[in-house]
From TrEMBL:
<keyword id="KW-0547">Nucleotide-binding</keyword>
<dbReference type="GO" id="GO:0016020">
    <property type="term" value="C:membrane"/>
</dbReference>
<dbReference type="InterPro" id="IPR003593">
    <property type="entry name" value="AAA+_ATPase"/>
</dbReference>
<feature type="domain" description="ABC transporter">
    <location>
        <begin position="46"/>
        <end position="286"/>
    </location>
</feature>
<keyword id="KW-0472">Membrane</keyword>
<feature type="compositionally biased region" description="Low complexity">
    <location>
        <begin position="332"/>
        <end position="343"/>
    </location>
</feature>
<dbReference type="GO" id="GO:0042626">
    <property type="term" value="F:ATPase-coupled transmembrane transporter activity"/>
</dbReference>
<dbReference type="InterPro" id="IPR050352">
    <property type="entry name" value="ABCG_transporters"/>
</dbReference>
<feature type="region of interest" description="Disordered">
    <location>
        <begin position="311"/>
        <end position="343"/>
    </location>
</feature>
<keyword id="KW-1133">Transmembrane helix</keyword>
<dbReference type="InterPro" id="IPR027417">
    <property type="entry name" value="P-loop_NTPase"/>
</dbReference>
<dbReference type="InterPro" id="IPR017871">
    <property type="entry name" value="ABC_transporter-like_CS"/>
</dbReference>
<dbReference type="InterPro" id="IPR003439">
    <property type="entry name" value="ABC_transporter-like_ATP-bd"/>
</dbReference>
<dbReference type="GO" id="GO:0016887">
    <property type="term" value="F:ATP hydrolysis activity"/>
</dbReference>
<keyword id="KW-0813">Transport</keyword>
<keyword id="KW-0067">ATP-binding</keyword>
<keyword id="KW-0812">Transmembrane</keyword>
Length: 343
């Protein structure tokens, strides 16, 4: 583990498939589905069939993540972007070990890891801050430090102090966190504290679900700037999800994972995304944010990728056709030769 800390952690997800079972619900229009002509035996059969069909459509399985693969490297930020419901949070929860996918695996430095080992090496900042409103910033950090680190009090204090400095929270170290009822620190500062709580043990991998949600553009940029410094100075691997990142924020990401409806549409740099869009005939208009443009163009990207897949699979199919014809001939010959062998 020590060696892993020194060299940084590459996180690799391979073929993640995640399905959830949704609850069966009563068909909302069931009351209208019975027709007065269905009183005979044939009518009853039709009604039962209809009920079975409705039940099937109202219950079942939701394919949240479909064959998702990516790599996140140390010293870098990978941003997961996509429309609402694309599967960003689900993917992060799987990475953080909160859920297990039905298929696929997550590797750290090319090796499988168990959940407890991964928890020690990582920090997971959820979308909602879960902090005690009556504790001060310093007390909150100290609480987390005592839970996560087995160090003498003096060392805990100095770790907390240096982290408060790194997070730019010196000026509010003695201020209460607060909540809706008790006035406390600002939303941006609260997000910083949540990040601090999760990095107190100096994890090599940091996973953040929408660290900028609810923040103004300046506070959002400050948070991503701070994460960029953490990645570059400490060799952390940072994986985060984000909604509508501003132009300056996108520039700080080393790579983007564009998800739509549980599938990966792009994995690579922003420049590569821009180039791929251009190759699809989607020219980024001036002063339009690349990520927003890509999200708005998801339907076209999907269509183009499907067409490309068809083109890629067609020649082998044609080839397969000729091969099958040939094989048919060969088989005939083989059969003959087999027959002659058995003879
Ligand atoms: N426990 C669950 N029960 C029902 N549906 C779920 C559950 N978990 C995820 N989903 C569904 O899976 C899909 C992906 O959800 P997820 O929260 O991962 O998306 P997201 O990209 O993070 O969305 P947002 O940006 O709005 O947070 C959604 O359609 C969601 O409704």
């Amino acid at each position: 583990m020590q060696q892993m800390k020194m060299q940084g952690c590459e996180v690799e997800a391979i073929g993640i498939n995640y399905k959830i079972h949704t609850n069966k619900t009563e068909h909302p229009f069931k009351i209208f589905s019975k027709s007065p002509q269905l009183d005979n035996a044939n009518g009853q059969e039709i009604e039962e069939e209809e009920e079975a069909r409705v039940e099937k459509s109202c219950s079942g399985v939701r394919h949240v993540l479909k064959n998702v693969s990516f790599q996140a490297r140390p010293w870098e930020i990978l941003a997961i972007v996509g429309p609402s419901g694309a599967g960003k949070s689900s993917l992060l929860e799987i990475l953080a070990g909160k859920h297990s996918p039905q298929k696929g695996s997550v590797l750290l430095n090319q090796k499988p890891v168990d959940k407890s080992q991964f928890r020690k090496l990582s920090g997971y900042v959820t979308q909602k801050d879960t902090l005690f409103p009556l504790l001060t910033v310093e007390e909150t950090m100290m609480f987390s430090a005592k839970l996560r680190l087995k160090l003498p009090q003096q060392q805990l204090c100095s770790r907390v102090k240096s982290l408060i400095q790194e997070l730019g929270l010196d000026h509010v170290a003695g201020t209460r966190i607060g909540d809706d009822r008790v006035r406390g620190i600002s939303g941006g500062e609260r997000r910083r504290v949540s990040i601090g709580v999760e990095v107190i043990h100096d994890p090599k991998v940091l996973i953040l679900d929408e660290p900028t949600s609810g923040l103004d553009s300046t506070s959002a940029l400050q948070i991503i700037d701070m994460l960029k410094v953490m990645a570059e100075t400490r060799g952390r691997t940072i994986i985060l999800s984000i909604h509508q990142p501003g132009f300056r924020i996108v520039k700080l990401f080393n790579s983007l994972l564009l998800l739509a409806n549980g599938s990966v549409l792009h994995h690579g740099t922003a420049e590569l995304l821009s180039l791929n869009l251009r190759l699809m005939g989607l020219e980024l208009p001036l002063h339009v944010n690349l990520v927003e443009f890509a999200i708005d163009s998801i339907d076209i990207i999907q269509q183009q990728q499907q067409q490309q897949c068809q083109v890629e699979t067609e020649p082998p199919r044609r080839l397969l056709g000729t091969m099958q014809q040939k094989k048919g001939g060969d088989d005939g010959q083989q059969q003959q030769s087999g027959e002659s062998k058995s003879d």
